[in-house]
Design a protein that fits this description.
single chain, alpha/beta, eight-stranded mixed sheet, 12 helices
Amino acid sequence: MSADIPAPAPAPGSASGPASGSGSGAPDATAELRKRIDTTKAHPARVYDVFLGGKDNYPADREAAAMALAANPRGYLTVRHNRDFMRRAVTLAAHEGIRQFLDVGTGLPTQQNVHQIVQAIAPDARVVYVDNDPVVLVHAQALLTSGPRGSTDYIEADLRDPAKILEAARRTLDFDRPVALVLAAVLHFIEDDEAYPIVRQLIDALPAGSCLVLSNISSDLNPEQVGQVTKAFKERGFAMVRRSRAQVERFVTDNGLDMLEPGVVPVHRWRPEQVTDLPEAADPDQEFVASLDELDRTRYRDINDVTDADVSVYGVMARKP
């Protein structure tokens, strides 16, 4: 992707106007966001985008992704299964009647965003996205648009500032009604002394019947290869806090939440189902795939071919009684 980011166009089939709230879509606001994008350093959201087959990334992000793949050749399965865990968890929340979702650390818009998933089940669902990366916000202005009956907002904020998140989210969400708090693959960028109080502050603001969807890179699944990856990422400017099963479970137990079955498990083990998460992986042209580099080939691979050693992220869903 060029450093000169084109103005994003509305997504096909989306609502005619931009999402409500902080991302007004005004040209001057978008231009200001573009000025703040640093294309010379890898960013977690953009590296994630590489593994999801996205186009909103830069050479530095591809370099970091290629490095991660070299250290852990099946590590792309972790990224894609984490995304599919999120899909299954918010689908369950929507089927159980939750109509409000707060997705913190949303990452770049891709296929099957939270609002697309839940508004397909409940068209009146409200979704608030939160991220602190300007490239995410530029694309959110065009792509994170709601259906006509629902509502979608996006907030520029850091997870380290939960008070700001909660204040801004109240523009769209009613905190007297249950909310699904989604913290997928974001807490591992925050050290323990901040992470646990942050989650407590967010959970304390939610009413009974709300739920937590959380995933975190592990310290006890595939530790050698994952350790090499996280070390290399740290050298590129973003540290990742690996957590054990017990440390992930603390986000649930410290806040008095009721853990849903099957508890804290590798994300591919959380209520699994047969799935093709990327459309291009359904029936790829093998001759074309063979012409690609190793990094781009990963998007055409079936994620159902997975072992416990391939996935190094824990996932959990819990309910506030």
